[in-house]
Amino acid sequence: MERKAMIAGNWKMNLNSKEAEELALALKKGLDVDLKHEVLLAPGFINLSIVKKIIGGLPILLAAQNMSWENKGAFTGEVSPIQLRDIGCTHVIIGHSERRHVFGETDVIVNKKIKAAIKNSLTPILCIGETLDERENQKTYRVLETQLKGAFEDLSEEQVSNIIVAYEPVWAIGTGKTATPDQAQDAHVFVRKELERLYGDDFAQSTRILYGGSVKVENIDQLMAQPDLDGALVGGESLKADKFLRVIHYQ
Ligand code: PEP
User: Fold this and answer.
1) Please, which pLDDT band fits residue 57 given cuts at 50, 70 and 90?
2) 73 — alpha (psi -120 to 50), left (phi > 0) or beta?
């Protein structure tokens, strides 16, 4: 089954409005509009509408990096799925390792956010991944299994049919230490098997699994050559137009 690849840029808590505008304009200028795979940008909340204005009309998708599971109300400091839809987001990153490990997001919270995203027609990009300690103690598969099971709790195959999974080993995020293509492929095969166990073969074969963790110009081609890597979620390297354009146009 053919899966359309996706290259996604997670700008995290970086860039002021002028910098975000400049980066989006440079990406717009350098993008091959006939690209066969998808490109997605995830700027910080305050830069979403600035970036949307620039990429509108281009084949670039817009995502938020996080959101509330509530639609509206007295939730000071939160941003709701309705607000994200209104501003032009089609996707939302859920359960990024920084949300889990810095802000204490649990699988229960991740599950609530996935449900809220789906209810509001936002495609979730669900992030999962093990820490270095977990990998060194042979717990990688167990962690991935638990995070997947938790995220998909009480959701039918139909509800999650468009979800995107991002395998992001915590030890590789922002560290410059990338998983080798073999390590990434191995984890992706495991994730796909778990997806099959949860919802069957059709679902597993059609669901895109992105890799994230120090993806760079130097490693994107080898990573994307792996059969079960369906794209990349890119942090640091997505902040410089020339580098991110090379990652987007991987070979
Ligand atoms: C990320 O933000 O999801 C990420 C993988 O970051 P980096 O590419 O900087 O490791």
Assistant:
1) confident
2) left
Least confident of 177-181, 224-228, 229-233: 177-181
pLDDT for residue 148: 98
56 pocket-lining for ligand 1 (C-beta < 6 Å): no
Take atom 1 of ligand 1 and give the residue whose Cα is closest: 235
Instruction: Examine the residue annotation and report whether 130 is marked as an active-site residue of this protein.
Output: no
C-alpha 231 chain-centroid distance: 9
Contact (CB, 8 A) for 247 and 32? no
Query: Is the whole model's pTM more than 0.85, yes or no?
Result: yes
* CATH code assigned at 124: 3.20.20.70
Residue 177: band (very low, low, confident or very high) from pLDDT cuts 50, 70, 90: confident
Q: Is residue 1 part of a domain?
A: no
Asked whether residue 77 carries a pLDDT value surpassing 80, the answer given is: yes
Total number of domains in the chain? 1
Range of the domain at 40: 6-248
- Between the CA of 74 and the centroid of ligand 1 the distance, in Å, is 32
Rounded CA gap, 105 and 96, in Å? 9
Note whether residue 230 is domain-resident. yes
In a domain, 125, yes or no: yes
Told to judge if 168 belongs to the known catalytic residues of this protein, a careful annotator would answer yes
- Angstrom distance (rounded) from CA 188 to CA 12: 24
Whole-number pLDDT of residue 251: 94
Q: Which residues have C-beta within 8 Å of that of residue 246, sequence separation ≥ 6?
A: 217, 220
Q: What pLDDT shows up at residue 2? A: 84
The answer to whether the CB of 191 falls within 8 A of the CB of 165 is yes
